[in-house]
Amino acid sequence: MGLERRKAGATATIRRIVFAYAIPARRVFAMAAFLALTGCALASGEGRPALAGVSIPLGAADLPQETTTTRLAAGLWRHAVRIGAPAPLPAALEKRPQEGPQEWTWRSPPLRSPADESRYGACAQDNEGAQASGGARDNEDAFLETVLYPYPGDARRTYAIINAGRYDGAEAARSAPVANALRACGYTLHRLSDAPDHDAGPWRLDIIEIDPAAFRGRLSIALANEKIAGAEPVAAIADRAGAIAAVNASFFVLSEENGVIGDIAGLSVIDGRVISESVAGRSALVLGDGRARETAITRLETSTELLWDDGSVTVADGVNRRHGRSRNCGNPGDAPTSSALHDVTCTDENEIVVYDRLAGFEPPREGLWAAYVGHDGALSRAVPADWRNQDGYLVLASGERADEMEARAATASRVFIRNRISAARMPAFAVNGAPLLRFAGADVDRADEEGWPMDADVPLRQADAAHEWINLRNPRTAVGIRDDARILLVTVDGRRPGVSVGATIAELRALMGALGARDALNLDGGGSTTLAIRSRVANTPSDPQGPRPVADALVVLPPLD
User: Fold this and answer.
1) How far is residue 84's CA from residue 467's CA, in Å, rounded to a whole number?
2) pTM of the predicted model as reported, rounded to 2 decimal places
3) Are the C-beta atoms of 118 and 146 separated by less than 8 Å?
4) What confidence tier does 234 reach under pLDDT thresholds 50, 70, 90?
5) Whole-number pLDDT of residue 54
6) How many angstroms separate the Cα of 307 from the Cα of each of 406, 409, 555?
7) Residue 537 bridge partners (DSSP)
8) H or E element that contains 329
9) Cβ contact 260:226 at 8 Å
């Protein structure tokens, strides 16, 4: 996979520079890599960390790297990795550090056709003279720069991005004479350290390593506020669960316009019960009986069925979400698509949604067919006011599906709700993620199928969002499973120039491979990326206001006895 950059100076000459997109192994291991195990020497049966002092493939090969490994429990370690020369952190991690001068540019959206390249290229060329005289930093006439990125899911194809100007700071870019003209052309302000060809870093990342042969606790999933609706910071979730460590997990709804805040946007299984349906084509982390040693990453699909007393079956569309809205899409009947589409809310005028006591909210029923199904299968059109405190289900239907439910209820007295999953058995826990990074020891890239398509028929705004999400650096959270069955929970801090710049999905994939992950899955990231050690935030979340409330967390729990 390659990242190609072309620069055009004021003379319109073109020079080509090719950058390796797969990050090379670090030639200089570290300025100081050391192992700091808390407590006494390892006792028999406690195991040893496999990743102490591990070399991380991020940035230039000669950057200093420091790894500090701390024993959290028998068979459980935290590896804090620092690459490059980060700025000092403030005492309170939740406060944004002071950011030093940064290079900024005005960039085009993804250019996926000759017409796009001509249009946006002409706009930049028209304003190049003003850039040269109006504040762009003199860098060997590198006032225009075309960078080629791989398509999500198909590295053999590329699309172009044009960077127009290099400025020392965002304010310099905003006040440049060409700023208004470039903005009118569709260019947006962009920090160059977010691009993968910027190799100075710095980076801060953390790895929780679990050895199931020695760790006697459990890896599990905990909901924010113990219900679907609402969100809660990872540290608060960890505190209530009594967790030794925790990281954020599922994608979820962040605003009321897209559903219910805290609604999990993809598969979720808690205590053997499907509480949120899957998104087509996406994978999940599966936790067998909740113990760390029974863990897998696999593609799963769910089905919620209504089993009528005459033997017929009605398949519902969703579980515990706002009726008619599906975040990240990926369900039959969704509009504009039944395929996965990340950070997009699809709609469906004809659907059945089932709610249980974990929903945590009262869905609007106006204009919908509604019924209550008791735990004994009894069907009633009179919904109890306290249905959320009972073990039954609220069923809502609209459009043609409401007519279907009306007809079935007229001839049936009982119906049972059954959740099915595309696996040999229902797991105790499962959490959604995307894109899949590695599987069966090999890199996997099908991000286009998992919600980030960028073909020419994709709206430009959506393609731009996919570019920023996949091919630019962001805070990331991932989970991996090694051949030796060790489990890795990884956070990479980002959007903090001078502290940590984040990782692209390709960089995250290479990182998980370097850590020995046989299978690896990206989880929710960005402002959600948080590591808590016991009840304290241990990384540097990117949101200015502090750690973001999330829908759920992967929690590492101590032994029960």
Assistant:
1) 26
2) 0.89
3) no
4) very high
5) 84
6) 15, 12, 35
7) 532
8) strand 325-329
9) no
Q: Using CA of residue 541, residue 547, residue 553, residue 555, what is the dihedral sign?
A: positive
Q: Is the dihedral of CA 359, 364, 370, 371 positive or negative?
A: positive
**Residue written as tokens 């944004």?**
96
Joined tokens for residue 212: 């199931």
Identify the H or E element spanning 118: helix 114-126
Task: Give the model's pLDDT for residue 46.
Answer: 75
Task: Count the helix, strand and coil residues of the chain and give each as a percent rounded to the nearest 5.
Answer: 15, 35, 50
Q: Where are the alpha helices (DSSP H) in 127-249?
A: 128-133, 170-174, 179-185, 234-241
C-alpha–C-alpha distance, residues 325 and 120, integer Å: 36
Structure-block tokens of residue 89:
């952190």
Contacts of 428 (CB under 8 A, 6+ apart): 269, 271, 272, 287, 288, 289, 290
Q: What is the radius of gyration, based on Cα positions, of the chain?
A: 25
pLDDT at 130: 53
CB 302 within 8 A of CB 267: yes
Confidence of residue 124 (pLDDT cuts 50, 70, 90): confident
Residues ≥6 apart with Cβ < 8 Å to 132: 10, 143
b (16+ CB within 10 A) / e for 307-346 = ebeeeeebebbbbbbbbbbbbbbbbebbeeebbbbbbbbb
The encoded tokens of residue 499 equal: 């502290």
**Taking the mean position of all CA atoms in its chain, how far away is CA 256?**
20
Structure-token match 């003279």, residue found: 129
Look up residue 378 and give its DSSP letter: B
Contact present, 557 and 242 (Cβ < 8 Å) = yes
* CA distances from residue 433 to 102, 249, 267, 476, 524 in whole angstroms, order as listed: 32, 8, 8, 12, 7
Q: Tell me which residue of 512, 452, 49 sits closest to 297, measured CA to CA.
A: 512
* Closest C-alpha among 294, 292, 291, 288 to residue 272: 288
Can the peptide bond before residue 541 be classed as cis, meaning omega within 30 degrees of 0? no
Is the separation of the CB atoms in 276 and 328 below 8 Å?
no
Distance of alpha carbon 364 from alpha carbon 370, whole angstroms: 10
User: In this structure, are strands 65-73 and 34-35 parallel, antiparallel, or unpaired?
Assistant: parallel
Residue type, 405: M
Task: Report which of 553, 554, 551 is spatially closest to residue 262, judged by C-alpha positions.
Answer: 551
Cβ distance 84 to 198 under 8 Å? no
Residue type (1 letter), 110:
P
